[in-house]
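One such given next:
>
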Amino acid sequence: GITVDVSPPSIRHIKLTGYHARPGLVRDSEGNVWTVDEHGERERVTDPPEDCRNTSRPVEDIDLWPVVEPPYRRNTTSLNCTQLGPLPAMGYLPMENHLHVHWEGWDDESGIADSEVGLSSTESAAVSPDIHPFVSTKSH
């Protein structure tokens, strides 16, 4: 028979090749403050002062941003987080014919390995993407 799984898959550490944005601060649901760099990678701020905590933009799912890996860690401290404002809502991609996106994804309930990805200009167009229709990742 056929089993229909309506639970959403899990996804984290989305990386867009060539992505650029103004660095800024975000705050997760547990109150941790993170810097997000110009490439969209995050690093936790150790002992952030109240200024950094108040300036940071709250986010629902911190795991969407990949963690900065050694040797690129900046060791962000309370001293240098005060130089940043909240992470902007927008970033920029170069004008190219290809968009390279990497992520970690899984679905524990169903074991489904294939996903479909589409691009939309707004959140409201996510059900029916208006830039590029849904296409299979062919289990990649």
Observations:
- The chain is about 5% helix and 25% strand.
